[in-house]
Write a structure and sequence with these properties.
Blueprint lengths: L2 H24 L1 E5 L2 H8 L5 E4 L4 H7 L6 E3 L4 H12 L3 E3 L6 H14 L4 E4 L13 H9 L3 E8 L2 E3 L7 E3 L4 E6 L11 H23 L9
Parallel strand pairs: 1-9, 2-5, 2-6, 3-4, 3-5
Antiparallel strand pairs: 6-9, 7-8
Length: 222
């Protein structure tokens, strides 16, 4: 990158970090099913946290400072996200320029073996919105760790006009974190078992988003 481009990314990512931290600290959080995370970790397994791309703002704050390794793309948007979440205490799996997503998957698997949790946006990096991709199931099958879907909804928010309808919570809004049941994938799973696991994750994410977005009597995001 040119110097001015690097400077711009550094300044914008620093600003993004402070905005997430300042706004996140004002939110009034309600969490359901947190014991799922504790149960998985107590069993000796690590978490593969899965969520929708448009909820990155809230998720980044809620799971901060836990050393979770998050898969991000190698494009410019991914660079902004990577720099922000590193400041929030995350690791980043991006792969190499030549290996791309395959390299990032290898890094996530390595992190899980080293005792760290992983995270990825199921419809990222470019959509379609709210359509889960198969990456998490592949990682679960290779690692033996479960995929744990979750959703974060906020009562009051701004929605960016982007492909993922990126949400920015309004300060002092109420926020609800809904955690789904873990989805395990056997190492010997065949095509039908893999498709069933993918469908289960998609269904869980949809149900969590619907419940969360309707939590205060509103309509689910589309």
């Amino acid at each position: 990158m040119r110097f001015m481009e690097q400077l711009k990314i550094s300044l914008v990512s620093l600003l993004g970090y402070w905005i997430i931290y300042a706004v996140g600290a004002t939110l009034r959080w309600h969490v359901e099913n947190l014991q799922v995370l504790e149960s998985v970790q107590n069993s000796g397994k690590r978490l593969i946290l899965s969520f929708w791309h448009g909820r990155i703002f809230m998720a980044s704050y809620f799971f901060r400072k836990r050393g979770i390794v998050v898969m991000t793309s190698r494009n410019r948007d991914g660079e902004y996200i990577a720099r922000v979440i590193r400041r929030l205490g995350y690791g980043v799996a991006r792969g190499s320029d030549t290996r791309g997503a395959r390299g990032a998957t290898i890094e996530i698997l390595r992190a899980l073996r080293e005792g760290k949790d992983g995270g990825l946006t199921m419809d990222g990096p470019r959509g379609p919105r709210y359509m889960a991709k198969p990456g998490a199931v592949y990682i679960a099958r290779k690692s033996g760790c479960p995929v744990v879907p979750f959703n974060i909804s906020v009562e009051k928010k701004w929605i960016v006009n982007s492909w993922d309808r990126f949400q920015i919570p309004r300060p002092f809004s109420r926020a609800v974190v809904l955690i789904g049941e873990p989805v395990f994938v056997d190492a010997a799973a065949g095509k039908s078992e893999i498709r069933a696991a993918e469908a289960k994750i998609q269904r869980s994410l949809e149900e969590l988003r619907y419940r969360g977005d309707c939590w205060w009597g509103g309509a689910p995001d589309t």
